[in-house]
């Protein structure tokens, strides 16, 4: 839904404007399904897993995004949508290039603070690819049963409510006592002419 | 033309309007064929049948056809100062398969906008003329709500009780009571108890992502089962290319590609176009011919013009205590029409509603407000289960420059054009929108919110696509007459949201379906007129 989009960054989806959000529309990748990597080699897979874990780190009972399969989810998505595959691979390679340039070692060997800094540099360099990985990571994270279970435990939000429902509580019509006594609040019209206010 | 018609009535489009027309006419004994470009929704694939429903809702269930790209979807581009993010579905049930269920009657003044306020247009009939059809439709779909709202005329009891309003609703009621405003439980097209073979809602929420329970009253569940029982010949994956005319200028039927890609014709005494606010003008414009060079039924030049989408926004309040924002139908709390009617003290005409919703779901919320990195969880935790949203909907006045046109630079799989919309909010809509958002802040603050954020007036949410083949008395200033019959083609009807002369300030599904039933009754009651047509078989 459009209100998913952050204010100020929203672009209306256009048939004429290349956009990863359009490309993935028909890529059905169930979240949390067991899967390995198909497109990415082990080194790039490790970089992407560390990238996703940096985007959404571990917190309380909530795992980091890398450990719930966000990187594998992204890999499966680009496997189904080859048109966005180059952007992903290029961005991963760019992260590694930045890591070696800035901290002198691989991204996976950088500490948490260094990783954040590197990703902020990448975000400035290649905003589209960064947003793509970020959006897909959020999807893989907030659709995952382990994450939803942890959110319920920590925040009371029942993520499985759409599966299970809940009891229906009757509306308390006594709350309408005041409103029922109010005068009509609509313009009654007759033959195209207003007859009362 | 010696070929016998396939049916008494050909209906193009199986959505909210088409379904109602098919059901009503078949129930009276008419032989009906319906052409639907989409397919039946596979209910096992409804997003909400799966725990990762939010993700599925962004991909194959995405409301924007440019994202979803189902086989029946055609390209839609959006232009103008305030481009529309188009939300529509091409499937049996039409865009209702992705609706939230908010189900409003228009007010009497909505039918007399020009007479009362000097803007827009009057409808060619009054509220009282549509009211019986509202009631019939509400019984058919099993609307939940309460009669007695002083913000509308007296009316029949509704068939089902209101949906549970939950903690968000209680907080909003407290606010309205504190402010001394009018409020009422929001009417919903949801069976809150078992009704006509459909199960009771059980509060799974997030209604726009499909209702596996079958309690959300989408047209595939309400009108279609009965229509099929009564013999309607529903042909899915039927991509209509054009309306076909006879030498006498009457509609013979439609030419379409069937599910195997084979070109065919369906003929009937009467043809009804019910393809929605974009699809209807698209088909009429695609049906241009030497006798109708600017498009069929377009002697007024208004086919595709006056596109209206409503002035819409959300405001979201942040509360100290948990609000159980996960629990209940998305739109089924309480609403206010305190500011619905024109008030001379304000700097705009017409008005708006505010409908209480629940909280934003986890993925949705995270994408909105939670930055990536070390601050992610803190931002998320502050708001998850602590927010309540108000849906804001105001009247968008018609203006000819807001329009839909054929887009020959983007074709569908059969070489038929896509469409391009052009839209700009007018000054009245901007003033109305600003006031609407300001009042939403007032409500949420009165409810106890410690802060309020809103979505402004952009993007323009294109859920409600209206007005592009308007009804009216004068053929020079309207496309269809008071019974939805095209002025230019005597046996062609245009019966969906495109026929609405003004948008009102409420969700339009109830009005679209009431209009469709009224149109169906007119076709039935005037069937002798069509008997005189050479191809008619209406009994």
Descriptive labels:
heterodimer, A: 197 residues, mainly alpha, two-stranded antiparallel sheet, 9 helices, 49% helix, elongated, disordered C terminus, B: 539 residues, alpha/beta, FAD/NAD(P)-binding domain, Cholesterol Oxidase, domain 2, seven-stranded mixed β-sheet, six-stranded antiparallel β-sheet, 18% strand, globular
Please give a structural write-up.
The complex is a heterodimer of chains A (197) and B (539). With 197 residues, chain A is an all-alpha fold. Chain A contains 9 helices and 2 strands. Chain A has one domain. Chain A has helices at residues 20-23, 42-55, 70-80, 85-102, 112-125, 127-142, 145-155, 161-164, 177-180; strands spanning 189-190, 193-194. In chain A, helix 2 packs across helix 3 (70-80), helix 4 (85-102) packs across helix 5 (112-125) and helix 5 crosses helix 6. The longest helix of chain A has 18 residues, at 85-102. Chain B is of the alpha/beta class and 539 residues long. Chain B folds into 2 domains: 1-51 and 84-142 and 217-308 and 466-539, FAD/NAD(P)-binding domain (3-Layer(bba) Sandwich), CATH 3.50.50; 144-211 and 311-394 and 425-462, Cholesterol Oxidase, domain 2 (2-Layer Sandwich), CATH 3.30.410. Helix content of chain B is 25%, strand content 18%. In chain B, strands 1, 2, 6, 7, 8, 9 and 18 form a 7-stranded mixed beta sheet that branches. A 6-stranded antiparallel beta sheet of chain B has the order 5-11-12-13-10-16, with helices on one face. Chain B has a 3-stranded mixed beta sheet with strand order 3-15-14, with helices on one face. In chain B, strand 1 (7-12), helix 1 (16-28) and strand 2 form a beta-alpha-beta unit. The longest helix of chain B is centred in the C-terminal third of the chain and has 20 residues, at 427-446. Chain B is globular, with a radius of gyration of 22 Å. Residues 532-539 of chain B have low confidence and may be disordered. Classes of the chains: A mainly alpha (197), B alpha/beta (539). Chains A and B meet through helix 5, helix 6, helix 7, helix 8 and helix 9 of A and helix 2, helix 3, strand 3, strand 4 and helix 6 of B.
